[in-house]
Write a structure and sequence with these properties.
Blueprint: H1 7-31, E1 37-41, E2 46-51, E3 54-60, E4 82-90, E5 98-101, H2 106-114, E6 124-126, E7 149-150, H3 153-162, E8 168-172
Parallel strand pairs: 1-8, 6-7
Antiparallel strand pairs: 1-2, 2-3, 4-5, 4-8, 5-6
Length: 173
């Protein structure tokens, strides 16, 4: 005749299940952590990823070759200022990986039109081209992009995983 498990055995099994579930919760919530905002402060050369107002990570960045002032026209080598979104990802970028920033806005386009020019585009948050990847963090010694925001290849790989398409981007002077 089968015997019923003792109360101690079922309590121990139940306790083990509860402990395993509690251990899984922090791992699961951390794995799903994504940024919902990117804050770039040009004067500080920083880019901060935020999730629900909480800091995820801050990176040092290189900017456009003419970093002071907002982007006005194509070819001015300035990084834009204002509010945008990440509207695409390019896994095959010549700059390792790239997140496309939704520049130009309607206001950016109007500003360029008033200056009898085009606003430009292709503003990205990206890594380093293969021939320069060895520079790593040294690339930040100068602002060298055409208006993009550049980080190391290891950093863009991390950012790529944390930033979904649709993430808000605020670029401050």
């Amino acid at each position: 005749m089968p015997t019923e498990p003792s109360r101690g055995t079922s309590f121990t099994a139940f306790s083990c299940v509860v402990v395993l579930l509690l251990l899984a919760v922090p791992v699961q919530s951390k794995a799903k952590q994504e940024a919902d905002k990117i804050l770039i402060v040009k004067s500080a050369r920083t880019m901060t990823l935020l999730s629900h107002g909480k800091l995820l990570k801050t990176y040092k960045v290189a900017l456009g070759g003419v970093p002071v002032g907002p982007k006005r026209v194509e070819g001015d080598h300035k990084t834009p200022e204002g509010n945008y979104v990440i509207d695409g990802k390019n896994a095959h970028s010549r700059f390792h990986l790239a997140l496309h920033v939704s520049y130009p806005s309607a206001a950016d386009t109007e500003t360029a039109r008033k200056l009898s020019s085009r606003p430009g585009g292709a503003i990205m948050i990206h890594g380093l081209a293969a021939p320069f990847a060895y520079l790593g963090a040294l690339h930040r010694q100068t602002d060298w992009t055409d208006g993009c925001i550049a980080v190391t290849n290891a950093e863009i790989e991390e950012i790529w995983k944390l930033v979904p398409v649709g993430t808000r981007v605020e670029i401050r002077p």
